[in-house]
């Protein structure tokens, strides 16, 4: 496996890690049994529907040819994975600008987007598994109205709207069938935050110019690699044991700002999957070296409620050399590597448990591996905790209460 994990900085005893292996293998059996609800993502990379993938890539090509801008309307799992990949990964030149709506109830945010839509050739892509999330509903009704005015009729606008939703249920599915939108399906047995490799994530990524086939290849390599379970599962065990020792917060740290939204995606994955029954690690993400100058002090000497997970990219295609001054001849990555080393040494001295995750480089193939690795880690940790990592009753509560507040 290409993604490496180093647990030396956790000070966890090998025996403690080994003692959880039997539970982990039970969790893996459950994940791969095909009998657990919402585990469709586990085997999905190994049984990719090639015809459907070709159709998705063909529609993405058409969008790239006809539009300058695609506005994706979606929130949570129907937003985060696409946004994270688009921020992180290299994109082909024919990729177009992809922007996101329906991620808040903010007029100035949507007004700015609508102004841009008025000026540019635009395609709308609405994504919702349930088809009835209010943020998405509100933004879709507003932006579709703009599309109808911009392109002259409901029928003309419908040709520029793509819907991604459940195969059968929900109002968005009914609407897509009725209005004749091009549509793709989010499989019923894959929940929002595990849906990166369904059309919910893949379609916007493809329109932005990401090499979606490489991403899927990476995911499949991780799913089929004989030792894939060791690292993801050791990470899961370490998280679980640290939680049992009383740690309440996992600070996930990146040394590359392109991973900022991967951090947001991880927060959703971990937070929504594990925060149940009064338990779970509160996930926090930090962007280094920037946040060393704000949160570094707390990490070094503050209340020790946390452990750190450091995500390091090993190799950069291009490293900029500092041409003059005291650092002349060094690259920015030389400094980054020194920062990683120095921070880990200092924080270990202060007694902070540290998990390291190393990715060979930031491209679509390894990113696919990483997503699968993190989803597995999350599911296994949840199972070790004895909670269901695939439901989100708390989120459903907020949605219900909000509808009530609106008198709906
Ligand atoms: O992970 C989840 O299930 C949630 O975060 C959903 O993705 C989010 O609430 C959006 O739901 P939907 O896709 O049904 O609009």
Describe this structure in words.
By secondary structure, this protein is α/β, with parallel strands linked by helices. The termini are far apart. α5 packs parallel to α10. The chain has 17 helices and 10 strands. It is 51% helix and 14% strand. The strands form 2 sheets. Strands 1-10-9-7-8 form a 5-stranded mixed beta sheet, with helices on both faces. Bound molecules: 5-phosphoarabinonic acid (PA5). 5-phosphoarabinonic acid binds next to loops. Residues 75-78, 128-130, 133, 136, 191-193, 272, 392, 395 line the site of 5-phosphoarabinonic acid.
Low-confidence stretches: none
**Structural class by secondary-structure content:** alpha/beta
User: Strand count, sense and closure of the main sheet?
Assistant: 5 strands, mixed
Question: Over the alpha carbons, how many angstroms does the gyration radius reach?
Answer: 22 Å
Number of helices: 17
How would you describe the shape? globular
Ions, cofactors and other bound molecules: 5-phosphoarabinonic acid
Strand ordering within the main sheet: 1-10-9-7-8
- Give the end-to-end Cα distance, rounded to a whole number of Å: 50 Å
N-to-C SSE series?
EHHHHEHEHEHHEHEHHHEHEHEHEHH
**What is the share of helical residues?**
40-55%
- Approximately what portion of the residues adopt beta-strand conformation? 5-15%
Oligomer: single chain
Total strands: the figure is: 10
Average pLDDT works out at 95
